[in-house]
Design brief:
Length: 133
């Protein structure tokens, strides 16, 4: 899961691709030193998430990266990426990400805590502990 904050620039109408698939595209402009225009896609029931938003609103978008392979009729293989939104909230109203969690600038997973191989069980009478309690 990834999260991005920015300004809603474009909200397109829902496109019905088939009787079993619909999508809605929208664009968010980041607030970075060099702003980026990021195109997102909402699918199926998530298309309705955008009904309560207007352009120029500050939003936070939760999304997943999707990728797929496609072979053309000529046999040429191509790869496509989709940024699929699954939640959109007004900026400041969402739940906070944990410290060190994914952000626009840090998309690496949170490193797991490592055990201290030199630690051992301390008995109740051991005074080597410097904690006051």
């Amino acid at each position: 899961m990834f999260k991005l904050s920015g300004t809603l620039k474009v909200i397109n109408p829902t496109q019905v691709v088939s009787d079993r698939f619909s999508k809605r595209e929208f664009v968010v402009e980041t607030q970075d030193q060099y702003p980026q225009l990021i195109s997102f896609q909402a699918t199926q029931d998530k298309c309705a998430l955008l009904d309560n938003f207007q352009t120029n609103e500050q939003v936070e978008v939760s999304f997943n990266l999707r990728g797929r392979e496609w072979t053309s009729p000529q046999g040429e293989v191509k790869y496509f990426n989709t940024i699929e939104a699954w939640r959109i909230e007004r900026a400041g109203q969402g739940t906070a990400m944990p410290a060190g969690g994914p952000s626009a600038m840090n998309l690496d997973p949170i490193p797991a805590a490592t055990a201290n191989p030199t630690s051992s069980v301390i008995s109740e009478n051991d005074d080597s502990d410097d904690l006051p309690f």
